[in-house]
Amino acid sequence: NPSFSLAFKESPGGSKQPELVLERELDREKQSSFELMLTAVDGGDPARSGTVQIRVNVTDANDNPPVFSKSLYEVRVSEDLPAGSLVLQVRATDADAGTNGAVSYSFSNVPGAISSLFAVDSENGEIRTAGPLDFEGNSKYIFDLEARDGGGLVSHCKVQIDVTDENDNAPEITILSLSSPVPEDVPVGTVVALLNVVDSDSGENGQVSCELSGEAPLSIVASPGGSYKVLVLAKALDREEAAFHELVLRASDGGDPARTGTARIRVTVLDANDNAPVFSQAEYTVRVPEDVPVGSVLVTVTATDADEGLYGHVKYS
């Protein structure tokens, strides 16, 4: 075998002892043992020989670090994944034997935010969720893992976990301003309320549509930005018909199933002097004798006004 050579060492008494000499570096991972045949030949004629078999077993040295199957592991998971769910499994192999080839896995200098959300199994390389994920809080996690063998050699890989959005947020309605009470004589198209409607989800899950319920002379209009809504008068108010209006604004997102948010709005109508007094009769006819005494009551007329307060106080002349 070219890895070995035979040398002779001469003793003081003149005898020679053969020595097996290593000629080049061994690699147990390529060849773990060698079978050699040593032959000794004497000087007779004919010569006689003897043989002996030599087995060389190569013991392992920790000369190989663990090697990951990938330098970057990527996976996509849903944000509603329960705690303890399997995210992915990394794998590293070590060509050494025994404890030198035994691999353990761990995080490599990751912040507490990572270790609180994920856990790695030191024996099999499984990465599982340790806490609730939130797409709105963080949609991507990138961190390092290390594989260490029993002799202390280490290798690293990167893990990228992309969190996908789920429809876990209902639309939120905030009333930024509300004009109440509203005079009943304001023109149609007057802005009554300014609203902010947002949904923290993304994509269709965050696309919001709004509708009003209740018999109110109001309509809702979306602003160009999409997140603000305004309530405007759709027809003239009449306090004498309704002194206030209560309505419910319902916002629904585009998820399946959809989530909804609601807000209750009450608009009080302020009186305007838009009603004239009305007599109980259009014409009063009274017959009296010509000798009626001065100061006698001939007839009592009555007029009413639908307005309130001073607007509804009637004087006669």
UniProtKB/TrEMBL annotation:
CDD domains: Cadherin_repeat. Keywords: Calcium, Cell adhesion, Glycoprotein, Membrane, Repeat, Transmembrane, Transmembrane helix. The keyword Metal-binding does not apply. InterPro entries: Cadherin-like_dom, Cadherin-like_sf, Cadherin_CS, Protocadherin/Cadherin-CA. One of its GO terms (cellular component) is plasma membrane. It is a single-pass membrane protein. GO terms for biological process: homophilic cell adhesion via plasma membrane adhesion molecules. Residues 1-20 are annotated as: Disordered. One of its GO terms (molecular function) is calcium ion binding. Residues 4-68, 69-173, 174-279, 280-317 form the Cadherin domain. It is found in: Membrane. This is PCDGD protein. It comes from Alaudala cheleensis (Asian short-toed lark).
